[in-house]
Amino acid sequence: MQLPVEFLLFAKRFFASEYNSFLQALALSPPVSVRINRQKNTVPPTSNPTPWCSAGYYLEQRPAFIFDPLFHAGCYYVQEASSMFLEQAIQQYVHHPVRVLDACAAPGGKSTHLLSLLPEGSLLVANEVIRSRAGILAENIAKWGCANVTVTANDPADFCRLPDFFDVVLVDAPCSGEGMFRKDAATVAQWSPKNVQLCAERQQRILAACWKCLKPGGMLIYSTCTYNTAENEENIDWLLRTFHAVLLPLNFPAEWGVSSPVYPAVYRFFPHKVQGEGFSLAVVQKPIDDTDIFLADKPRKYKFQPLPVNWIRNKDEFITEQNGNCITVFPVATYAECQQIRKHLRVVTSGIPIAVINRKDISPTPQLALSVHLNKSAFVCFEADLHTAIAYLRREAIALPANMERGYILITYNETALGFVKNTGTRGNNLYPLEWRIKKMNN
Prior knowledge:
This protein is α+β, with helices and mostly antiparallel strands. It has three domains: 80-285, 3-Layer(aba) Sandwich (Rossmann fold); 302-356, no CATH class; 379-443, Nuclear Transport Factor 2, Chain: A (Roll), CATH 3.10.450.720. The protein has helices at 5-15, 19-26, 69-72, 86-93, 109-117, 131-144, 185-190, 193-212, 233-243, 335-344, 366-370, 386-393, and strands at residues 32-36, 56-59, 76-78, 99-102, 123-127, 149-152, 166-172, 214-224, 246-248, 266-269, 279-285, 318-323, 326-331, 347-350, 352-357, 362-364, 380-383, 407-413, 416-423, 428-430. The strands form four sheets. Strands 4, 5, 6, 7, 8, 9, 10, 11 and 14 form a nine-stranded mixed sheet that branches. Strands 12-13-15-16 form a four-stranded antiparallel sheet. β12 (318-323) and β13 (326-331) form a beta hairpin. α4 (86-93) runs parallel beside α5 (109-117) and α8 (193-212) packs parallel to α9. It is globular.
């Protein structure tokens, strides 16, 4: 790997006596790590947990994730280990239901992590300004299976329409990507001092917009996957000076190897000190004496529309909404907030669409199959072997037993739901989404 000269000059100044150790670490293969979805009863690996994430694990080698049906079922997320440090901020400061904005959420690593961490009754808004990436985000959110989330596709400035609305805002900012150098050669080719400066300026614009939608007393988490100070400590310093933010410390063992070399409570991950990539995270609080308070809509009492089918568990905890021929469920606890979000922002998905009403029947959705709220006992299940599961995920025709009941059949693998087929008696029509299918053919 040929690193840019200007970056090496920065690294030599920044790391000083650790410079050679840093370069040696960059020459090594990056670790592989996953975070399991405990809400799907995922069996964790037997060893090598990540120190700072209770559901994170290192793998000895990188398998072909694309050919693991459990990956497509949302049983785990392939995520860089350092970025799982987000868990420490949530665990140490969030102890009751909150409204959370993940402002730069695609492809969904931190959003799915938040869904596993937030107290019951919380609402997550996962946002991505680029529509194509918002589609990928919505897919990963759907596979994680939670109902208390809305995916939006807005510029961060659009969230100014909701001043003081969120208790927690995460800005995992687009950055120059220096921390990904050993994983992605493209980031090396695209790096330049000019791009670093452009990234720092863009990050300030995002932070300023997000600050307006954060409640007084609320918490903003700022992270990047880069090493330079312009995108990290200098932006935190700018936040403190411009908005009178308060820097919040995190408590954790020194043995983890996490550093704060420039600014206290700006936490740095370096590949020669931790088993992970370059990462930076800081937590700041909005002053409580801020007086620009958002006047929320008055709470309303909603009438429950009874579900026409018994396809989800604990259905009294959900509000049912029909839009056209689509039936969607929302948690009662966050429905009012979802309504406000949809009133002010461009929504991609919200809640869990569970059914489509056709002229002759009601068909279950792919999102229902992957939901942690699925009432599995409401369906006839077909347990697929690996070959059949991969064929299903490629959206190929599935051969079902001749004596299997007609109608909608839930395809499972290792007793985990993958999706539905419609058994007509002569064939099984594959209902897996075309845009989600496995396109690679050799495994």
